[in-house]
Every structure is written in C-alpha cells, then in structure tokens.
Design a protein that fits this description.
- There is one protein chain.
- The chain is an alpha+beta fold.
- It has helices at 2-6, 10-46, 61-97, 117-123, 132-137, 139-147, 189-235, 244-268, 284-300, 321-339, 372-375, 393-403, and strands spanning 100-106, 112-115, 154-160, 163-176, 179-188, 280-283, 305-310, 316-319, 346-353, 359-365, 407-413, 417-423.
- The protein has 4 domains: 2-93, no CATH class; 99-188, Beta-Lactamase; 193-273; 276-423, Heat Shock Protein 90 (2-Layer Sandwich).
- The chain contains 12 helices and 12 strands.
- A hairpin with a 2-residue loop joins strand 4 and strand 5 (179-188).
- It is elongated.
Length: 424
C-alpha cells in the first residue's frame, strides 16, 4: 500500500483500500459471531438453561466447531443433573417410606427445606412451608420441637388433642453455602412400645402354657400311679396291700395342685380370648343397650347414676362384640370403684364420630381420679393399685384395642374424675 502511494498508482490504491476494508469488515463479523455465540452460551448458563442446542451442521467451520464444544458441555451438565435428580428422587422416596419423621428448615427465616409425610403424621399437622405456622397454632409443640436443641436423642412427650405422645427427638445443624439449616428427626416410640408390648403378651401366653403343662404333668403322673396301685389291690388284695396314708397323701397333693392350677387359670383365662377376633358389624346403640341391661342394675344399686348416649343412631362398628363388651365392662367397673364414695356420683358412656371418621367411645366418671405416678403404669400387665386387683384389666383392654387396630387413651385429674377414650 505504501509502495503504491509512493508510485502514485491510484488504481492499485483504490483496489487495496477496498480489500483492506473488506478484510476489516470480515474480521469484525468473524469476531462478532463468536462473541454472540459465546454470549448466548453464557446467557444459557446464567439461567441454567442447558436444553439449548447449537446447530453443528451449518455456518463456518470454526463456528460449527465452537457450537459442538458448547453442545458437549450442555450434554455433560444435563447428564450430571439427571443423575443428581435421580439420586434426589431415590433418597426422597426412601425418606418418605420410613416411619421416622424428618424435617429440615432454614434457621434464619424458618422456611422448610424438606419434610416427609411421617413428620406431619406424628405431630398431627397439615403441610406447612414455614415453621412459624406451627408457632402460631401450637406454641408448646413449636417450643418442644423447633426451639429446643437436642444434640443427643432425647425422649419427650408432646400434647396432641388431649393425648400425650412419647417421641424420640434428635437434631443437628448443617451449613449449605452461607445458609444454616436445622435437621430434626422424630420417632414415635409409643407405636414401638405397643409392638414390644404385643410381643411381650405372646411370650407371656407361651410362659403360661408352659407353667400349666408343668402342673398338669405331675398331677397326671401321680394320678396314674395311684390308679395303678388301687387296680393292683383290687386284682390281688393280699399280695398288694393298699397304703391308705400314701393314698391320702397322694390325693391331697392332687387336690392342692389342682386348686392352685384352677386359681391360676381363673386369674388369667381371659388372656386366651385375645389371640384372634370374630369381627361383625354392630350398631353402637345395640352395643350400648346390651351393656346397659347387663351393668345398669348393679351400678344403680350403688346409687351411681349411669347414662349412655350416641351421637347418631346410624353409627356402627366392625368389632369383636364379646371382646369390646368386656372392655366396656372393665372400664365401667373401674369407674364404679372410682366414684362410689364421692358426692352425686355418675358415669357417662358417650359415642361419636370425628371429622376424620374415627369412632370414639368415652367413659366419664366424677370419681377420685388417678395420680400421675399410677397413670404411668396403669396399662402395664399385672400392675394394680387395688388390694384385690389382678392387674390385667386395663392391660387386657389395651391389648384388645390394639388387636382392633385402635387405641385406648386416658385423661384424669385427681379429685375431679377420669375419662377413658376408645378410638376405632
């Protein structure tokens, strides 16, 4: 170009000028296309849009090569995201299936990061996005679960609709970027205790069977020996004299052991009734009529007022009638004992249905109530506060309700009375 200017070759100068201008424009367009492509890619990355696909089959070769690199990056990130999503779904499904309640929330603003269904079931609460919702509705529950720090697993009682539920709680704090989160784990140990209690009942029945057989075997053996000696004496009296003292001693032993066995069987024979259920549908009004005919006269004879009430005549239950009658009889007799020495004693038996279709039978009395010390043990087999009690009445009631997949709850205040609730 400088040579042409020195030689004043105008034609060459013009041609070279056009060539230089064209080259600059092409260079500009070349750089601009690449900047636009890179800018598009970074924009997609900014908004995490890795579904964007760049055309690899058209345009200049170098642009197609750049697009192929972008697509490879997108493809790799999509594969990583899919694997992470699959792992998240897998973990989420596992945590949803466990019967342990789990919730994670932001410590600063209270927003719930994740919560499984078991947690909502345990605290008997609908789904919520912020823990402040629980604070407004149930402050005591909020303080027990979210405000208290339990580095080690700790057993606590939480109040749910007049029911004290025992749970095992533990929590930990973890950091994600600049945010702090708290993970709370709840386990309903009441259900575990019920399961263990059911297993204990099975073991108890096995032990009882073993004890009965241990008593019957020597009785049978002794009776067989005495019968054989008597038969030998009958066949040949001279050769086989009958020792009356031995005979009397043997019969006395059989009598004493038989009486002990009868007492044992009479005390615990009701346990054998709870091994299976004969379910049938019955209206609650009919169930109450049977109990009223059976229990009414004896209760009223002690000057105790007793009444039965049903919220709807159509209310019915699918139960083993004989066993549930036994439960009601036990609870009414306990109510009779509790209120027979108070002024204007009364017993009320009420049946109703909750909004979630749970049928509830409540037995009220205005008796002396139950102390906290006794309350903790009333469902323990063979525990009794009565001088002549066997300690199997309430534990048997609970076992029968568990077989019906129900529950028995108790609420009592000393000096005011007691209410037992049967939930079906």
């Amino acid at each position: 170009m400088l040579y042409c200017i020195q030689q004043e070759k105008v034609t060459y100068i013009v041609l070279l000028s056009f060539a230089i201008l064209y080259s600059v424009i092409e260079l500009y367009n070349f750089i601009k296309r690449r900047f636009v492509a890179v800018d598009d890619f970074f924009e997609a990355v900014k908004y995490r849009d890795f579904s964007r696909w760049f055309p690899e089959d058209r345009g200049p070769k170098d642009i197609r090569f750049l697009y192929a690199g972008f697509n490879e990056v997108n493809r790799t990130i999509k594969e990583i995201n899919l694997k992470n999503e699959a792992q998240y779904v897998y973990l989420q499904k596992i945590l949803e299936m466990v019967d342990i309640g789990i919730v994670a929330y932001n410590l600063e603003n209270g927003d719930v990061l994740w919560m499984n269904q078991s947690f909502k079931d345990i605290i008997d609460f609908p789904s919520f996005k912020n823990i402040r919702f629980v604070e407004k509705r149930k402050p005591d529950l909020y303080n027990a679960i979210f405000e208290t720090y339990n580095k080690q697993p700790n057993s606590i009682s939480i109040a749910l609709q007049n029911e004290q539920l025992k749970v095992l709680i533990s929590d930990t704090i973890f950091q994600v970027n600049e945010d702090s989160f708290k993970l709370v784990v709840l386990q309903n140990i009441d259900s575990t205790l019920n399961k263990n209690e059911s297993e204990a009942w099975k073991k108890l029945l096995s032990v009882m069977t073993h004890e009965i057989m241990n008593s019957i075997a020597p009785i049978s053996s002794l009776a067989d020996t005495l019968q054989r000696n008597i038969q030998l004496h009958i066949d040949a009296a001279n050769d086989n004299p009958l020792e009356l003292e031995d005979l009397n001693s043997g019969i006395k032993t059989i009598k004493n052991r038989s009486q002990g066995l009868l007492k044992f069987a009479n005390t615990y024979r009701s346990l054998s009734k709870v091994t299976h259920l004969n379910l049938q549908k019955i209206k609650v009004t009919e169930l109450f009529q049977n109990i009223e005919l059976l229990m009414g006269p004896s209760i009223q004879a002690k000057n105790i007022d007793i009444s039965f009430s049903v919220s709807s005549k159509r209310l019915q239950l699918d139960i083993d009638v004989h066993l549930i009658e036994q439960v009601l009889i036990n609870l009414i007799l306990n109510a009779r004992d509790a209120c027979q020495h108070v002024k204007d004693p009364f017993i009320k038996v009420l049946a109703s249905q909750t909004q979630n279709h749970t049928t509830v039978i409540k037995i009220y009395d205005n008796g002396v109530g139950i102390s906290k010390e006794i309350m903790e043990n009333i469902f323990v087999p063979f525990f009794t506060s009565k001088a002549a009690g066997s300690g199997i009445g309430l534990s048997l009631c609970k076992q029968i309700m568990l077989l019906h997949k129900g529950r028995v709850l108790v609420h009592s205040k000393e000096g005011e009375g007691t209410v037992f609730s049967l939930l079906f």
